[in-house]
Write a structure and sequence with these properties.
- About 75% of the residues lie in helices and about 0% in strands.
- It has about 170 residues and is an all-alpha fold.
- Helix 2 (about 45-75) runs parallel beside helix 5 and helix 3 (about 85-90) packs antiparallel against helix 4 (about 105-125).
- The chain is elongated.
- The mean pLDDT is about 90.
Length: about 170
């Protein structure tokens, strides 16, 4: 295990909680935006662009949490072309003697779809943002956010135990 003191883990925990609050705000904003769209209606280009940015930000916040955790506990390096994919894989694996998996394999698969869409939003030249490409992501966002929050809550419990053990050893 990387040598990490309790204060660093407390900071990590606070950062995770803050990022989870941002994810909740994004989820609420997406739900609110979708109230203005009839079920069989294709949203206007402006609404689609806004939703695309929310999907981007949703995954960005999740990736930030996973990066913070794996960098602090594993020394994960965000170098290389495939680091975004590697991050999801690493976060979904238990590292024996170090930490449990941060997310389930099911959550990892779901999040990979958002990772791909975030890449499309960042690097795509076709800004028409086809609704058929993003509709499923928009509709499944509340469930994925809940799964991620559940996975992360379990990890935060382990993080709290780690902090308590370090503090106990230091006293």
């Amino acid at each position: 295990m990387r040598k990490v003191d309790a204060s660093r883990l407390l900071l990590l925990k606070a950062e995770i909680v803050s990022d989870l609050e941002a994810i909740d705000r994004i989820r609420e904003a997406v739900s609110e935006a979708m109230l203005a769209v009839a079920p069989s209606q294709v949203p206007s280009p402006v609404v689609r662009s806004g939703l695309a940015l929310y999907l981007h930000d949703f995954y960005q916040a999740i990736e930030q949490i996973l990066t913070r955790i794996t960098r602090t506990l594993n020394g994960f390096d965000t170098a290389g072309e495939s680091w975004h994919i590697d991050l999801l894989r690493l976060a979904s694996r238990e590292i024996e003697g170090l930490r449990p998996a941060v997310i389930s394999e099911s959550t990892r698969r779901d999040l990979d779809r958002y990772r791909g869409f975030r890449h499309f939003v960042r690097h795509g030249y076709d800004r028409s943002l086809m609704w058929d490409r993003m509709q499923g992501l928009v509709e499944s966002l509340p469930g994925i956010a809940a799964s991620f929050r559940q996975d992360t809550a379990a990890f935060l419990d382990v993080l709290t135990q780690m902090i308590n053990e370090i503090e106990k050893r230091q006293s």
